[in-house]
Amino acid sequence: NCRVAGAVWDNAEGYGGRGLVLQGTTAGSVQRCEILDNDYAGIDIRGQGNPTLLENLIHQNRGNGINVAGGAQPTLRGNLITENQQSGIAYYDSSGGKAIDNQVRDNQRSGIESNGKSTPVLAQNTLQLNQAFGVQVTGQARPVLVGNTARQNGKAGIEIARPAPKRALASGTIWIALPESSATKPCTSSVDRNSR
Fold it and tell me: Is the link from the previous residue into 51 a cis peptide, with omega within 30 of 0?
């Protein structure tokens, strides 16, 4: 068990504030740690690393709970990611990997963001009470959604923002709030309709 707290953003350098940085070709695992109260991301994974984050509590950070960037391919499993001032998990660039069986809730933006050209597999996650979306897909991101549950998020279970390709592999019904209107339309995917 470990606790990482209080990393500070350096305005002069324009860097810092990350509770834990895993970069380069990092492997290994971070298990049963508490990551909180950092000025930027709780955990920042970048480069070509493929670490495993297992059963961690990642909360109350002033940025995202977890950033995944570059070509990183981590496995995020069984984590509680909550009360962060941005999103719970945010994928950028050409990152990917797997997020499986995580509880992502009460974040001030979305539960999980897939941006850039990211290709994460998002499976059996619970995305609840996030202020924006359960899952938000932007840019050319192509996440695979399997068996996730999204409920009581502020705007919708999932948003696929243009020009993101509409790709979701699974069964079930999802309700999407389209950016150009406030109406919702059903499409095939794996996240249940949100309700307040």
Answer: no
- Return all residues near 104 (Cβ < 8 A) that are at least 6 apart: 65, 81, 82, 88, 89, 111, 112, 125, 126, 127, 128, 130, 134
Residue 36's pLDDT is 93
The pLDDT score that the predictor gives to residue 12 is: 66
pLDDT of residue 189: 42
- Which residues are CB-neighbours of 11 under 8 A, at least 6 positions away? none
67 Rama class: left (phi>0) / alpha (psi -120 to 50) / beta: beta
**Spans in the chain with pLDDT lower than 50:** 168-193, 195-196
Tokens 């391919």 belong to 73
- The burial class, CB within 10 Å (0-12 / 13-18 / 19+), for 78 is middle
164 Cβ contact partners less than 8 Å away, ≥ 6 residues apart:
137, 138, 139, 140, 141
Name the token pair of 83: 């009360």
